[in-house]
């Protein structure tokens, strides 16, 4: 029997293994992939990179990693992040406790023995006192339900499970379906290679420029790194950002020139902090429309054909309520002769045929189909596992009407089970994920130590604490514009998924305080019992 079984070997699983082992616990990590990396193992599509500054995305817990690793660009490529996570695994000799190529099919709680039995798809069983699901927030790809898609005769590539050997699109007629973050990153790179590229866009997204550039040794200076990390810890989104007096004001209260100057500054700075520009951008429709119009004007300037520009301008949902995309040369791709935008709002896909995609009664011939169609986010990887808690309660039953957690970390009825940063009810996906992952992992490992030190064998969130947290998450969400978009944050991209705004939008510092207070009060809201 292990002390802890961890499922997943991405950022979360790797850090968990390191911390739990440091505490002297026996740990086994089970990972479906053949290597470490999680997101960065699977999503190898052209153009894939982080959209958070790499120096902030890398782990902060290890002076040794700081000393031995250098990021080369502001936004590291997928290859570089995967190299980094391999380097983390090497540095801490993590692979010896990871079983690769092993997908977990189920986990069942034995109340009498106070232990979990974890079952793999291969039929192996492991027992453990604790299980931590480090299964990822965006790790369960979602197939689009487009008529005829299975009949397509050429190769179909998912951005989320891209072939390791890469794909050469030279001379090919390519179709990309999907214009979320993955599509926005892949399209310019595919456009450079393909003979012809059709981009099938159902919803135009709000996109801000990356402002990518090479990094120098100064970017890795220990004091600079420490300052950035401290700034990230204080920011609701976990991003290093020097708030000015202007950023604490409401956009609607400022004269237009002053407001536009700040939008312009943030636009030129590049990246996600665009939404930190003013206090009211994500809560007041009027302010949100101001930033939407600013972005629309940028699109009009970047895209030469006014009709194409108009189709690329998002409408019908607030800026930021769907995850903001960060681009390198996205709009410029539509100025190329070999790229054509197909606006599915005007002409929906009728069907995929063996030789192409039919829209408006015309078949567009296609050699290669690329699906950048997203994920069953947050809950998908968890509900794919047959998790059974007390009295055989299935997680899918407990979450029938939407996910319910305490702090995004635990679920009532499922003792000694934790989820990392992917748990609905946590701020993870609204933040620089590394910041949330480290905080979650630290909290979980401290919690396991506390249970052991108290001579307890079992910890479970109470229904009451969970109900209060779920209500709090909903209340805070409702004060913002987030619930108004059909985003993966509310599960709208998966037919039949209950519509619930899943992440906690109270901000990383507030959430961290909340978690720390729960721990300081002897794990308030949890029920601890001897084994
Ligand atoms: P993951 O990296 O998703 O790892 C989960 C692992 O669990 C996977 O390896 C998976 O194979 C394994 N697993 C799942 N289910 C099972 C099972 N049943 N059995 C065995 N193994 C299982 N976040 C940011 O903050 N900044 C970014 O720039 C950013 N860019 C992203 C780009 C892409 C393309 C995607 C998809 C996500 C991005 N994210 C980003 C979110 C990203 O997922 C997190 O930053 C982070 O990598 C999550 O790490 P994780 O270890 O929690 O999960
Ligand atoms: P996504 O944001 O969910 O985008 C999926 C796209 O596919 C949307 O444009 C969607 O259109 C479209 N789509 C889905 N089904 C379709 C259908 N049947 N017909 C036509 N279009 C369809 O997924 P993603 O781009 O993979 O990104 C998911 C998340 O991963 C991001 O939000 C981000 O958090 C993370 N990510 C980050 C980066 C990065 O920059 N570092 C890169 C990739 C991913 P609708 O909007 O109309 O549904």
TrEMBL record:
Protein name: NAD(P)/FAD-dependent oxidoreductase
InterPro entries: FAD-binding_Monooxygenases, FAD/NAD-bd_sf
PANTHER family reported for this sequence: L-ORNITHINE N(5)-MONOOXYGENASE-RELATED
Annotated signal sequence range: none
Statement: the UniProt record of this protein carries the keyword NADP: yes
Keywords of this entry: FAD, Flavoprotein, Monooxygenase, NADP, Oxidoreductase
Pfam families listed in its UniProt record: Pyr_redox_3
Cofactors demanded by this protein: FAD
Family that this chain belongs to: Belongs to the FAD-binding monooxygenase family.
């Amino acid at each position: 029997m292990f002390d802890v079984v961890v499922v997943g070997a991405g950022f979360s699983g790797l850090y968990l293994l390191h911390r739990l082992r440091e505490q002297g616990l026996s740990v086994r990590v089970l990972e479906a992939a053949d290597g470490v990396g999680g997101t960065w193992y699977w999503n190898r599509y052209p153009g894939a990179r982080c959209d958070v500054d790499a120096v902030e995305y890398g782990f902060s817990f290890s002076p040794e990693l700081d000393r031995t690793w250098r990021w080369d660009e502001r936004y590291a490529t997928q290859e570089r992040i995967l190299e980094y996570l391999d380097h983390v695994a090497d540095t801490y000799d993590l692979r010896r406790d990871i079983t690769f190529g092993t997908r977990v099919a189920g986990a069942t709680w034995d109340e009498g023995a106070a232990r979990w039995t974890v079952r793999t798809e291969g039929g192996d069983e492991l027992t453990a006192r604790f299980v931590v699901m480090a299964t990822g927030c965006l790790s369960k790809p979602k197939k689009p339900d487009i008529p005829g898609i299975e009949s397509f005769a050429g190769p179909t590539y998912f951005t989320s499970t891209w072939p390791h050997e890469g794909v050469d699109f030279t001379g090919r007629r390519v179709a990309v379906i999907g214009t979320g973050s993955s599509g926005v990153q892949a399209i310019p790179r595919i456009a450079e290679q393909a003979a012809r590229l059709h981009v099938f866009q159902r919803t135009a997204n709000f996109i801000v420029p990356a402002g990518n550039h090479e990094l120098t040794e100064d970017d890795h200076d220990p004091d600079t790194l420490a300052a950035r990390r401290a700034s990230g810890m204080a920011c609701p989104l976990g991003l290093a950002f020097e708030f000015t007096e202007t950023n604490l004001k409401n956009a609607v209260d400022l004269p237009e020139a002053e407001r536009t100057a700040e939008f312009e500054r943030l636009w030129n700075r590049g990246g996600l902090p665009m939404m930190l520009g003013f206090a009211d951008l994500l809560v007041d429709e009027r302010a949100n429309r101001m930033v939407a119009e600013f972005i629309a004007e940028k699109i009009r300037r970047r895209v030469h054909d006014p009709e194409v520009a108009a189709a690329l301008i998002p409408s019908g949902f607030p800026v930021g309520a769907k995850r903001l995309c960060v681009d390198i040369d996205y709009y410029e791709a539509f100025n190329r002769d070999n790229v054509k935008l197909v606006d599915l709002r005007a002409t929906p896909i009728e069907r995929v045929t063996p030789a192409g995609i039919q829209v408006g009664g015309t078949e567009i011939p296609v050699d290669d189909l690329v699906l950048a169609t997203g994920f069953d986010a947050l809950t998908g990887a968890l509900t794919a596992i047959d998790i059974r808690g007390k009295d055989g309660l299935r997680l899918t039953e407990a979450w029938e009407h939407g996910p319910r957690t305490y702090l995004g970390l635990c679920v009532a009825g499922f003792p000694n089970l934790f989820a990392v940063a992917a748990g609905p009810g946590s701020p993870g996906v609204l933040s620089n994920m590394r910041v949330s992952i480290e905080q979650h992992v630290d909290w979980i490992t401290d919690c396991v130590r506390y249970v052991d030190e108290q001579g307890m064998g079992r910890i479970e969130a109470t229904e009451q604490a969970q109900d209060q947290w779920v209500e709090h998450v909903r209340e805070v969400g409702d004060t913002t514009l987030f619930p108004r978009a059909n985003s993966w944050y509310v599960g709208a991209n998966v037919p039949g998924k209950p519509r619930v705004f899943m992440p906690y939008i109270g901000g990383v510092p507030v959430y961290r305080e909340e978690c720390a207070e729960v721990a300081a009060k002897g794990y308030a809201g949890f029920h601890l019992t001897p084994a």
